[in-house]
Design brief:
This protein is an all-alpha fold. Helices cover 68% and strands 3% of the residues. Strands 1-2 form a two-stranded antiparallel sheet. Helix 2 packs parallel to helix 13 and helix 4 packs across helix 7. The longest helix has 31 residues.
């Protein structure tokens, strides 16, 4: 039997003062990371740092840092690219993997699993993509800026949810869910736009590499090997195939995410049954005076498997990756891409001004008009209805928040204007349009979403919401 009866808050080998210090520091960090707006705050800070750094006396170091060659590989299999490439093309593939996981879960068991439930956010998202693109195209009908019509189409869910969080309890839960569902559909649209319109010339040899990666991935799934480190190699093969094919390699992340299983193996009932049996075997092993760690390993292994498989692989993977994406990858992307050097922008260039207006107005004006207009039209045509606790004032606030297009908009700008003078103008337009959308959303939310609206929906119970056809639930990018 274990003679150590003192199971305190720290392991026996730990140095108590150091452990207490680590615990005191980790508490505030954990609380900050659990606040919905926190990832948006980190993203905003990274963008401000990049902008200030790029326009400071040390601006040259900012530009040189991201062009630093970085080698990945071993032996003859070596790839040397800039740090900027590895961030935008490899690390952002993990961001797109999380997006793909969320899309898969919503299609199978969430907001997109029932067309009646998904009708309103689908209509709102379509309007929020079409109207900004039309505004941009109208101002950039021809010339070098015409490729940028996809820039103002996308919503940044981290920022948008963060803004709603800042509005506090005045935001009904159904309104927050509507924004999350809209953003998921918006991501699907942005992914399709990137894959179809912002990819280079197709090299068919890449299809063979992608096929090999998919074959390995499907073989692992068929063998019953659950997603984990074993899936890294086929995922990298698919990523390399996308790069060779000419499709932006981040789409590999979406593809892998869509293949992840969303069905629970054990589920809650299976977990309880296996856990009970494993704990009973563990107890019996402890009664044996000759037992050691080896004898305890087998029931503990079963307990660990049951705990892991009580949830779906897609949800587990999404939950594990989300903190890294929200607090590391996205801020690093912002730091590497938001540093617009204002002194190098030609504000007198008509093409640049057209891009500035097209993107800025597309985000700050086109998004709210498209989301609100298409939502209103779909309701009037009887295709869907407003969920309980949501009125047209709330839809306007959602539309304004939809204009917050930071991460994906800058990402598409990098693809639309590579190596041209319009890239800086496009990024500046994203920053200005997003900033305007944030202010409009906060002001509209404070004015339109009064405390009395929140009180009006307090009497709506969870069961009443779930029994309503227009109610849906979204896992969310929290």
């Amino acid at each position: 039997m274990d003679s150590n009866k003192d199971h305190g808050s720290i392991p026996p080998e730990a140095w108590r003062p150091a452990a207490k210090l680590a615990k005191s520091l980790s508490g505030p960090v954990e609380r900050f990371m659990h606040v919905e707006a926190s990832s948006g705050i980190v993203l905003l800070v990274a963008a401000v740092v990049a902008l200030v750094w790029a326009n400071s006396p040390w601006g040259d170091s900012y530009a040189h840092l991201w062009e630093t060659p970085f080698t990945v590989g071993f032996g003859s299999l070596v790839v040397e690219e800039s740090l900027h490439f590895w961030i935008n093309d490899l690390l952002m593939a993990i961001f797109f993997l999380v997006v793909g996981l969320e899309i898969k879960r919503e299609i199978v068991e969430g907001a997109l699993s029932d067309i009646k439930q998904a009708a309103l956010p689908i209509a709102a998202a379509i309007g929020g993509m079409i109207v900004p693109a039309v505004i941009f195209a109208a101002l950039n009908a021809s010339g070098p800026g015409s490729r940028g019509w996809g820039v103002p189409m996308a919503t940044d869910i981290a920022f948008a949810v963060g803004v709603l969080t800042l509005l506090g309890k005045r935001v009904p839960a159904a309104l927050r869910v509507l924004l999350l569902a809209l953003a998921i559909i918006d991501d699907i649209g942005a992914i399709l736009v990137i894959a179809i319109f912002y990819s280079s010339g197709i090299q068919l040899g890449g299809l063979i590499v992608i096929g090999i990666g998919l074959l390995i991935l499907l073989l692992l799934l068929g063998m019953g090997i659950r997603p984990g480190f074993s899936y890294v190699i086929p995922s990298l093969v698919i990523w390399a195939g996308m790069l060779q094919l000419g499709v932006h390699p981040t789409i590999a992340g979406v593809m892998v995410g869509l293949l992840a299983p969303v069905k629970r193996w054990f589920g809650s009932e299976g977990f309880l049954r296996v856990a009970h049996e494993a704990l009973e075997d563990f107890r019996q092993s402890m009664l044996d005076p000759n037992q050691g760690d080896h004898e305890l390993m087998e029931p503990l292994s079963r307990l660990q498997t049951a705990g892991r498989e009580a949830l779906s692989p897609a949800y587990r993977l999404q939950t594990a990756l989300h903190p890294w994406v929200a607090f590391a990858i996205m801020p690093l992307f912002a730091l590497a891409n938001a540093g617009v050097r204002l002194g190098e922008i030609e504000f007198g260039d008509p093409a640049g001004l057209a891009v500035l207006l097209g993107v800025g107005l597309g985000l700050a004006l086109g998004k709210p008009l498209g989301i609100f207009g298409f939502s209103w039209l779909s309701v009037k045509l009887g295709l869907c209805a407003l969920p309980p606790g949501v009125n047209w004032r709330g839809i306007f606030v959602i539309g304004a928040a939809g204009g917050i297009g930071f991460t994906m908009a800058i990402f598409i700008a990098e693809l639309a204007f590579p190596g041209t003078g319009l890239l800086g103008m496009g990024k500046l337009a994203v920053l200005l349009g997003t900033g305007t959308a944030v202010l409009v959303a906060l002001l509209a939310g404070s004015f339109f979403l009064g405390r009395e609206q929140a009180k009006q929906v307090e009497h709506i119970t969870a069961s009443e919401l779930e029994s309503t056809p227009e109610y849906w639930t979204v896992g969310g990018f929290h």
